[in-house]
């Protein structure tokens, strides 16, 4: 067994305005996980002045997209530098099947794997209605229904191929994202408990096979 067999690796999927950020913060607070946000990692790398950070800085200054290879390198750096944490939440990555495969490979090389992909399942029409109502009341530019519709469409296109990828691995869990924050948190917590129980069972089975139990 890996020395990091207890480390949890979670992916949290959720469209804009579904409360993904709220749930991620709660996981960090309640379970001691580290949220690995692609944007935060890129900014931190640039600020660090490391060799990798300098590469990222030059790419961003040119206005180019940071390659999957660099994002994976940043993730590996965070994982390697935080060996004593309960686990990680991957936020904003992966967005494609190729990225998912690269992440799987990076974790496998460290004796780890994605344990669960938690999808906050929402009703698109209800979300649009919520945003439209809020825009009518507050007039916030970021709540413009037209802009939000584009963001929601992009999210659905990006995640569509990833859902069957993780479902085929038996790792996709869906929770009702339209319920209250507390109810969604309870559903997410229940998924976590199942994941922990499965990991404990696998560890017990491993030692039983090892010692002929």
The second-level CATH architecture is: 3-Layer(aba) Sandwich
Instruction: Kindly provide the name of the CATH class.
Output: Alpha Beta
What structural class do helix, strand and pairing data support? alpha/beta
Low-confidence stretches: none
Number of helices, where a helix is a run of at least 4 consecutive DSSP H or I residues: 9
Please explain how this structure is put together.
Belongs to the adenylate kinase family. The structure is a single chain. By secondary structure, the chain is of the alpha/beta class. The protein has a single domain (8-187), classed as Rossmann fold (3-Layer(aba) Sandwich). Helix content is 60%, strand content 13%. It has nine helices and five strands, in the order E-H-E-H-H-H-E-H-E-H-H-H-E-H. The chain has helices spanning 20-31, 38-48, 51-62, 68-81, 97-108, 124-138, 145-159, 162-168, 181-210; strands spanning 8-13, 33-37, 87-91, 116-121, 172-176. Strands 2-3-1-4-5 form a five-stranded parallel sheet, sandwiched between helices. Helix 4 packs parallel to helix 5 and helix 6 packs antiparallel against helix 7 (145-159).
Topology of helices and strands:
Elements (H helix, E strand, L loop, with lengths): L7 E6 L6 H12 L1 E5 H11 L2 H12 L5 H14 L5 E5 L5 H12 L7 E6 L2 H15 L6 H15 L2 H7 L3 E5 L4 H30 L3
Helix pairs in contact: 1-9, 2-3, 4-5, 6-7
Q: What are the defining features of this structure?
A:
five-stranded parallel beta sheet, single chain, Rossmann fold, 5 strands, 213 residues, 60% helix, alpha/beta
């Amino acid at each position: 067994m890996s020395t990091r067999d207890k480390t949890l690796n979670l992916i949290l999927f959720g469209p804009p305005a579904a409360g993904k950020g709220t749930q991620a913060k709660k996981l960090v607070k309640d379970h001691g996980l580290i949220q690995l946000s692609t944007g935060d990692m890129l900014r931190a790398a640039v600020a660090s002045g490391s060799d990798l950070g300098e590469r990222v800085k030059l790419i961003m200054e040119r206005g180019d997209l940071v390659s999957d290879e660099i994002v994976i390198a940043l993730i590996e750096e965070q994982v390697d530098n935080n060996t004593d944490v309960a686990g990680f939440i991957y936020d904003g990555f992966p967005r494609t099947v190729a990225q998912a495969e690269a992440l799987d490979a990076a974790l496998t090389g460290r004796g780890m794997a994605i344990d669960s992909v938690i999808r906050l399942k929402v009703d698109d029409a209800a979300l649009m209605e919520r945003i439209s109502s809020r825009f009518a009341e507050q007039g916030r530019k970021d709540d413009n229904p037209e802009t939000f519709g584009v963001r929601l469409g992009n999210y659905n296109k990006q995640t569509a191929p990833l859902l069957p990828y993780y479902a085929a691995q038996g790792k996709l869990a869906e929770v009702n994202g339209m319920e209250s924050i507390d109810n969604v948190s309870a559903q997410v917590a229940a998924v976590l408990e199942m994941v922990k129980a499965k990991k404990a069972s696998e560890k017990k089975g491993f030692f039983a096979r090892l010692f002929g139990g």
